[in-house]
Amino acid sequence: MSMINYAAREINCKIVYYGPGLGGKTTNLEHIYGKVKPDTRGKLISLATETERTLFFDFLPVDLGTIRGFNTRFHLYTVPGQVYYNASRKLILKNVDGVVFVADSQVERMEANLESMQNLYDNLAEYGYDVTRIPFVIQYNKRDLPNAAPIADLQAALNPGWEPADVSRARVTPDPYHAGENLVEQLSSGEWVEKAPYFEGVAITGDGVFDTLKAVSKLVLKALA
Amino acid sequence: MTNPGAATWSFDEEDLAALTRTVDRFLADTGAHSALIADRSGQLVATMGRPLAFDPTVFATLTAADFSANDQLARLIGETDFTTLFHQGEKESMYVADVARRLILVTLFDNSTPIGLVRLKMKPVVEELTAHLDRAFTRARELGATQPNLLAGAGDEIDELFNW
């Protein structure tokens, strides 16, 4: 739930990084923390176990600039990826404005990715949200690993597309991030599909981290416009 | 693009002034030194009283998480929620109260303020804050019907913002 504070001239939005355990959600936040100017971000808070696994959430507030005289302040959260922390994950999704799904590209993590994606759908549905109707971006992380699955396989499994909200007004929309691909298109069967924007990432070196953040933040602000 | 996820809400200088007046009086009545208001998703709304020696943004987030976790604990034991939480320290303590399930009021006080007094004075303060919020929402609804929202037509400016 974005909050516009006219007194402080701030627009506050909440973005949640979701995905399977050890997929790189916390690493995304750590990279952002390390790269943005200290005066435009707050502290990085980690509620983690002694072995540095996220227990409740990580949190990082960042300012991404001014629009119409209002400072845009994004609150970035990660959820604990491990399956048994679902109660915590559900709490963090409350009042979310945008979601980044950080998938682990490794072939052997495909099942964990699918399970986590299903869990995201289910948890959002419990709040009455629909992931296909809110700002949503997917990051395929760990692209540098030799056992990374091909993007086409990951897309087919995790981002197969959904029917656009208003099919009668659907039109082909090119993917601004991938030449020759579309975010909205008509299949040969005549059916229209819409997909989430996706990015390839190597969070540990920072590749794709800011592209992902920019894309989801932009979608969140456009949803307000 | 519509967002059938979470709704947007806003408040202006007048709302903030009303909240501040109520909380300032509460601080004076109880002797508590500081207060902080956050929304239930952890976004900081305002701080009152003595300036805080820590990052209020982080504090707001952790308080909201604390409250949400306790709500779930309440449900597990058969309650619908806990409307207040009290954390007692050796020198500093905090009393946290829900306001209309939308805001959280955190009161910080030291040993010189009796918890009983904070608890006693909290109930009417929460009622007053709820009334302020109701007014703010009614006005926002009325305005929303006649005025475009803040970012209406700002598509190009948003594109520009991310041009880095």
Name the biggest interface.
Answer: A-B, 50 and 44 residues
| CATH homologous superfamily designation of the largest domain in chain A | P-loop containing nucleotide triphosphate hydrolases
CATH class of the largest domain in chain A: Alpha Beta
Number of domains of chain B: 1
Secondary-structure arrangement, i.e. CATH architecture of chain B? 2-Layer Sandwich
Separation of the first and last Cα atoms of chain B: 24 Å
What is the chain-wise order of helices and strands of chain A?
Answer: EEHEEEHEHEHEEEEH
Distance between the termini of chain A: 14 Å
Please bin the fraction of helical residues of chain A: 25-40%
- Count of helical segments of chain B? 4
CATH superfamily of chain B: Dynein light chain 2a, cytoplasmic
Neighbour order of strands in the largest sheet of chain B: 3-2-6-5-4
What characterizes the major β-sheet of chain A? Answer: 8 strands, mixed
Named CATH architecture of the largest domain in chain A: 3-Layer(aba) Sandwich
CATH topology of the largest domain in chain A: Rossmann fold
Specify the overall morphology of chain A.
globular
Shape of chain B: globular
Radius of gyration of chain B, whole Å: 18 Å
Instruction: Round the mean pLDDT of chain B to the nearest integer and report it.
Output: 88
SSE inventory with pairings:
The complex is a heterodimer of chains A (225) and B (164).
Chain A: E1 3-5, E2 10-18, H1 25-35, E3 45-48, E4 54-67, E5 70-78, H2 86-93, E6 98-104, H3 110-126, E7 136-141, H4 151-158, E8 173-174, E9 182-186, E10 192-194, E11 198-200, H5 209-224
Parallel strand pairs in A: 2-5, 2-6, 6-7, 7-11
Antiparallel strand pairs in A: 1-2, 3-4, 4-5, 8-9, 9-10
Chain B: E1 9-11, H1 13-30, E2 34-39, E3 44-49, H2 56-76, E4 84-88, E5 92-99, E6 103-110, H3 115-146, H4 155-161
